[in-house]
Amino acid sequence: MPDKAKRRRLTSSSRPQTFSPFARSLALAASASSSGKQDAPDDGFGKNARKEKIEQTESSDEESAHSQSSDDDDDDGGEIEGEVQADFAFFDPKPSDFHGVKILLQNYLGDEEWDLSGFVDLILGQTTVGTVVKIEGAEDDGLFSVVSALNLDRYKDHKCIIELKEYLLKVCPENPVIGDLRALLKEQAQRTGLLVSQHVMNFPPQLLPPLYDALFDEVSWATEDEPTEELKNSFKFSNYLLVSKIYKLKSGSRKSKQSGNHDKDADILFSKLEDEIFYKLSSWSFNFPLHTPPVTNHELKNYQLTGLVMAVKAEKVTQFREELKSMINES
Prior knowledge:
Helix content: 25-40%
Shape: globular
Distance between the termini: 34 Å
Radius of gyration: 20 Å
Oligomer: single chain
Largest sheet: 10 strands, mixed
């Protein structure tokens, strides 16, 4: 199987490039640093793969968000300008990543009590398809992203998948979409991949295209290289199901009243840049309420954090990859 290895040199600005009002708010509010600690990556480990070099000019606050420290630290704690080099490396998931992946996914279903630990175990146990992103060689080595695709039929007997399905059916509105959801979770589960993707808030957007390239390339490779026909077939997805979050404009807010009868989609702010593309390409989607603490960011005071479920046909993956690259390149 081809490995993920390909080094590219990318340059990012002092803050993540933004593509929507939400991303701008998030860039300002970002305090994302994973507190999970794993052993430093082993240079000889498996698909140590595609390594992305980011040269950034950051303040001391931003450096801490990337678990980096500048050689030019100012004793007065003032803003520090300088070049900070960070090697973001893509790795196969492994057992020592458990804590970091669990932190990234701790709010996957809001405050719902479910078998999150079992869910993390599934992701870590599937090494042929799945990636975690770390800073290579960092002493304080946390996770910055995790992405995977789990076959809903292959893992149907696991407690976490049973509870996930029950939860989605519970929160899905009673409208025609619930029939489509039931079909993906049951009759079509053998060809449905649960696409799991989560990043820290200030994850460099330049890493998104190669991250998703790695995922979808691995899915393709798995259909040919897995040791049994059953495993090969388990990655022949017809549909992907995604569970994510958005910010929706609160009804009754001044902004909502000013918006009048315009397109309701204009009142949506996406928590992840790529979700805007998935949403556009989705066959269907629905929102569900999340029980989470109130939004404290002043710029998002008129918005409510809301769950979002999307179904995307596998045939749309090529278009997704092209549009994601265009989105990043044009910014």
